[in-house]
Design a protein that fits this description.
It comes from Runella aurantiaca. By secondary structure, this protein is of the alpha+beta class. The protein has 16 helices and 19 strands.
């Protein structure tokens, strides 16, 4: 659209009188969209040819719209927006610039964000604002990018608040270290009190607990001297409010080709709560260990002391039966038999309790033992039972591990004896012992195991009566029985002892079974004891 000759609004010592065509030529070569609005006519009297590049409209399109782009403006309250815009134009003072952003529909239908700066170009005869020149640019992509940055910054700030951490950055030739808002908060400082977000190294070191300062400084020097890529250290600070905090600092160091440090980007995290929980956990573990030791000592002493009077009950019961059998009569003999049987059961229970309490006591030295030899010895011990049951024991190739021989013998003895006990009527028992190296998925699937160590997966399975899957955990509980004493003998301590043995060897045991479908006991044992701790 052509521009009439335009007088200059204010005097200028470097003033250059130009004709309208010359001014128009200057506007046309501007990279921005230039348009001039006549306030009296309420329409544009000039718009540069950048309108087609930016908005897609030709001069003919604009003339058909009445010399105005109002019809393609996008605003929820368009009339109010237009009225307020003209009011701002009319109120502009000499040398003043008004800035505003609006949305407009491109000819292709897309919505573009336009940022415009307006200034008075000429005044009318009454001295009122007449022609208003606007210089506009398409900021759609810039706004999207800006919003994306704001969103990311918001997410970073929220993350720092949630995880009680903050980031920092140092670059060569910068005057200080740039902190994030989260790091200021971590130090008990108000971020708004530091507009440039830059602090000195000495400022940060002033928060470090004096006893930790030399260690932190020496570590920093070592990182620089050795040109390490990473930086990680833990130390304490006293924040601005006087609170003691435990921090973990991690950073990435960037060195130039000349070997000089050029940039460091790091994170500081508040681990005070973790440290507090850890100390409390350690305190409780110490107390629990002492309590367990006291209980084990009590169980051991009590069980040991109970054996002597129990031996006397059994001995006198047998003497009564042998010497006064005829005088006792049928009823008396029945009572003596019941008493003696109960004493024998009590003796078995005490023996198992002693075994259970001894598991935690490392009475043997750790040594490398062949589990295959252990199982063969167990089979020899159970030879009579195996023959009586007509049982078949199948042994896979078993590994050599570091453990206590007696404990391993007790473990396999209890498991195999358990399989021989809970058999189906008229069905010959088949017990299978297998082992293989556990894979990483299996190890990671058990919280009690160390994923960085080597474990063997050992299983003892049978074709016996099995058990309900819901009892898979209960059967390891001390004194728990799934069957009556009249059906299957035992004290209910066998599997509890197995679990304690496995766990004292830094392993894990579990049971699987179904009624009538047999049972399988799977346990994991480390190759070396010290590696699993």
């Amino acid at each position: 659209m052509p521009l009439a000759e335009v007088p200059v609004a204010a005097p200028n010592p470097f003033r250059l009188d130009l004709a309208g065509k010359q001014v128009e030529r200057l506007f046309q070569i501007s990279p921005d969209l230039v348009y001039i609005i006549d306030l009296n006519l309420r329409q544009m009297v000039f718009i540069s040819n950048r309108v087609q590049d930016i908005l897609g409209y030709t001069y003919d399109d604009i003339q058909q719209m009445g010399g105005s782009l109002i019809s393609v403006l996008v605003h929820p309250d368009l009339n109010r927006f237009v009225a307020e815009t003209y009011q701002r134009f009319a109120a502009l003072k000499e040398g003043e610039t008004a800035k505003f952003t609006f949305e407009i529909r491109h000819k292709n239908g897309s919505i573009r964000s336009i940022r415009s700066r307006a200034t008075v170009l000429t005044y009318d005869e009454q001295g009122k604002n007449h022609l208003i020149m606007n210089v506009a640019e398409d900021v759609t992509d810039a706004l999207v990018h800006e919003m994306d940055l704001q969103k990311k910054q918001y997410q970073i700030n929220e993350t720092e608040v949630i995880f009680k951490c903050g980031s920092w950055e140092w670059q060569k030739n910068e005057k200080g270290i740039r902190w994030s808002e989260g790091l200021f908060r971590l130090m008990g400082l108000a971020p708004e009190a530091y507009p440039d977000k830059c602090v000195t190294r000495a400022f940060f070191e002033s928060f470090i607990v004096p006893e930790d300062l030399a260690r932190v400084q020496n570590y920093s020097k070592a990182v620089l001297a050795e040109k390490r890529d990473t930086f990680q250290i833990e130390h304490r600070i006293i924040d601005a409010a006087g609170n003691l905090k435990y921090l973990t600092l991690r950073a990435r160091c960037h060195f130039g080709e000349d070997g000089r440090l050029e940039r460091v980007i790091g994170v500081a995290a508040d681990r005070t709560e973790i440290e507090t929980y850890q100390k409390e956990l350690e305190r409780r573990l110490v107390a629990l260990k002492k309590s367990n030791q006291d209980l084990e000592q009590f169980a051991y002493v009590a069980s040991h002391d109970l054996q002597e009077p129990l031996r006397k009950i059994i001995a006198f019961g047998e003497r009564l039966d042998k010497k006064y059998k005829e005088e006792l009569g049928t009823e008396g003999q029945f009572f003596v038999e019941r008493m003696t049987n109960a004493a024998y059961r009590m003796n078995g229970l005490i023996e198992d309790l002693l075994t259970y309490s001894r598991v935690s006591r490392q009475t043997e030295s750790l040594t490398f033992i062949s589990l295959e030899e252990v199982v063969k010895n167990v089979i020899e011990d159970l030879e009579v039972k195996i023959q009586d049951k007509n049982a078949t024991i199948s042994i896979d190739k078993l590994p050599t591990i570091e453990a206590q021989p007696v404990q391993m013998h007790q473990l396999f003895l209890n498991l195999i004896e358990n399989a021989l006990k809970f058999t189906k009527p008229s069905v010959a028992p088949v017990v299978t012992v297998k082992a293989r190296k556990a894979n990483i998925q299996e190890i990671k699937g058990v919280m009690q195991l160390n994923p960085h160590e080597t474990y063997y997966r050992v299983s003892v399975s049978d074709n016996g009566i099995g058990f309900e899957p819901e009892y898979a955990e209960r059967i390891f509980t001390i004194f728990q029985r799934l069957h009556g004493r009249s059906e299957y003998e035992g004290t209910g301590l066998g599997l509890a002892i197995c679990r304690k043995i496995v766990e004292s060897n830094h392993g894990y045991i579990e049971a699987h079974g179904k009624v009538g479908g047999g049972a399988e006991f799977i346990f994991y044992l480390p190759h070396r004891q010290h590696e699993a701790r």
